[in-house]
Amino acid sequence: MATGAAATGAGERDAILVLPGLMGSELVESATGRVLWGGSDLRRYGRAWASGTPLTSLHVTDDEREGRTGRVRATRLLRFPAFAPVLRGFEPYTRLIAGTRHSAAHSDAVREFAYDWRLSTEHAAARLAEAADDHLRAWRAHPHGSRDARLTLIAHSMGGLVARHFMTLLGGDREVRTLITLGTPFHGSVQAAGLLGPGGDASRPHGRLRTLARTLPGLYELLPGYRCVREPGGEFRHFTAADAEFLGGDRELAQQSLDRREKLNAADAEGNALPQLRPLVGVGQRTPQSLTLADGTAELHEYVPDGDARLDRRGDGTVYRETALAGSAQPFCLPQSHGALARSEEAVMFTRSVLTERPLAPPLGATELGLYVPDVVTARERCPIEIDLVDNPVAVDLQVFDAAENLEIDRPRLIRRDGRLHAEVRLPWPGLFRVEAKCGGFSAVSQLLLAVAAE
Prior knowledge:
Elements: E1 15-19, E2 25-29, E3 35-37, H1 43-51, H2 62-65, E4 72-77, E5 82-84, E6 88-90, H3 94-103, E7 110-112, H4 121-140, E8 151-156, H5 158-169, E9 176-182, H6 190-196, H7 205-213, H8 217-220, E10 227-230, E11 236-238, H9 241-246, H10 251-269, E12 277-283, E13 290-294, E14 297-301, E15 304-306, E16 309-311, E17 332-335, H11 345-356, E18 369-372, E19 376-378, E20 382-389, E21 397-402, E22 407-410, E23 415-417, E24 420-426, E25 431-438, E26 445-452
Parallel strand pairs: 1-7, 1-8, 8-9, 9-12, 12-17, 19-26
Antiparallel strand pairs: 2-3, 2-4, 5-6, 10-11, 13-14, 15-16, 18-20, 20-24, 21-22, 21-25, 23-24, 25-26
Helix pairs in contact: 3-11, 4-5
């Protein structure tokens, strides 16, 4: 733990709040204390997505939409991996929190901000305002604190949208020195639109996720806000609330979310948008960037328009790289998947370098690597793995782990074909697994996947 005497950067003396992304807070039922999302039992994800019964408690009710909340309570940030189809895995925040505390003036300077990610960013931002005021007051009065301390916000994914709402519309920017974002979709994600559309049997994992997603105001906050809808004539336009309804989503929730974004954009246009921003952006992974709407479905595409051509800009698998930028801030780019960004060694070092105001050296021998695995597979059946490479390295190390035990179960053999590396693995039992691929100076690119029992 750092001490006040050791702290040299202004950020090290600040009160620090860590905000998770969508599905990044553990949720419990207030009346019973029953865990609804998160927890240490990783087998529950297989049971939940297979049966669907545990997921019904996560659906947002009419009462909650009307503002009568409290049925569900956010307790803390994820301490263990979590999983949802399509959105894939969500890694715990323990490394990020530990690294941040190591660079702070005192461990008490760092506080987690868990929030109910099912609800709107407006709802979460109002609670962030209360938490920020309480934490800043407490830290300024702390023996290791400072009367001149301000706030540093470290936000993963949707947490950055909550921070932006707090700073831009609730006056939080007056007390915030720095906003560090890790894969925040400032301009939304095409994948969120894809989740609203039909796809898969409603009694299977992908269908169950769509049924849940359509009730979540928090999911609608991630709808794309740029020209991403490809028309039959080839031109591109913005995604609308009518498009959400066309896909089977809730038009009112979509319109409320898009109106909030328009309000934020208008407020940003009046001044320098988020001058405190320091973004880390995931790159190198296959990422949906545009879509075509037809027959009530959304077909996702891995390209954006570039004049008369199409350009694949990639991203972190969920957030296309340009949508993770806001204002004029220069990003730190990292080849990593969305769910694993906050867990990566580079994200921890990036956060610490911002806090300490010490430059971060580039990784030695860095090679951009993209990892692709299915999100849900059947145990003991063939699971394909593909690796995309920008360079042509001599060796890539590929490992497969049981995520519950962090136990290595395989090192699949890689075969070069069609400019990519290919492998396959047969996961030995139902459960949550992690695939890691490493080459060069960056830490391993990782992805979680769920193995389910054969029917």
